[in-house]
Specification:
By secondary structure, the chain is mainly α. The chain has one domain. The protein is 75% helix and 0% strand. It contains five helices and no strands. The chain starts with a helix and ends with a helix.
Length: 92
Amino acid sequence: MQALLYWLLPFVAAPPMAPIPAAVFGLWWFNHGRRAGSVLAAAILWAVYAAWEISFLFRPVREWIRVDLLLIAPVLLASTTAAAVAMYRSRR
């Protein structure tokens, strides 16, 4: 499970970085054809995740174990992978 969450660590450690993937996917979707729904879905999911992480700046986490990441990480991983595949296929 640690390998699944490893790629998410920079965004958990520095919550202001979390909107970057949302912006990348959102701008790509806006500029390169709006038919790729998976790219839009990834942008929305990353934006929701960014808001979730930034909310912890105002409301500190009391637990040492972030159980929410066990639910969020697989969804973000799947949506990011699907969006990356859609972006790659549209280049061809």
